[in-house]
Specification:
This protein has 154 residues and is of the alpha+beta class. 36% of the residues lie in helices and 43% in strands.
Length: 154
């Protein structure tokens, strides 16, 4: 009985340590590079006419993106910046970046474009397209790579 409990306990510890180390490796990876790659694919796929891309900046990863990607100027906007911009103009286009992980070594970066309008003190977000890109992660090399564009609607 003690032998079974010892084996079960050591197996549980091994599984816990293994999942922790995988999470630790992924979280230490520079995710800015992944968002940059995803945004570049998004810009290549879509036919955006504006030369300035406004990105809703709710996390520090987006803040680390470069100020320019190809011919597009990148602007990171906080909620206050969006409100200020909508005081000048009653509408604007905005991009939102998000990522989702799953059980395996891949994850999806979602880029959604919104047409934001202001009426009185309320903001209305109308989705204006989305691109979802699946990335794989190689734990040995510590790098990610694009697997496929999962969804593209404009």
């Amino acid at each position: 009985m003690k032998k079974h409990i010892t084996i079960l306990l050591s197996l549980s510890i091994t599984i816990a340590l293994n999942s922790y180390s995988q999470t630790s490796v992924v979280s230490n990876y520079d995710t800015t590079k992944v968002y940059y790659q995803a945004l570049k694919i998004y810009l290549d796929l879509t036919q955006i006419k504006e030369k300035t891309i406004n990105i809703e900046s709710e996390n520090t990863i987006v803040d680390k993106l470069p100020g320019q990607i190809e011919n597009f100027h990148i602007r990171n906007l906080l909620k206050e910046d969006i409100a200020s911009e909508l005081r000048k103009n009653n509408s604007m286009y905005l991009v939102r970046l998000d990522s989702q992980t799953n059980q395996s070594d891949d994850f999806i970066v979602s880029i959604e474009r919104f047409h934001v309008t202001k009426q009185k003190r309320l903001f209305f977000y109308g989705r204006n397209g989305r691109v979802r890109i699946r990335f794989g992660y190689d734990h040995l090399k510590g790098t990610s790579h694009v697997i496929e564009v999962v969804e593209y609607d404009q």
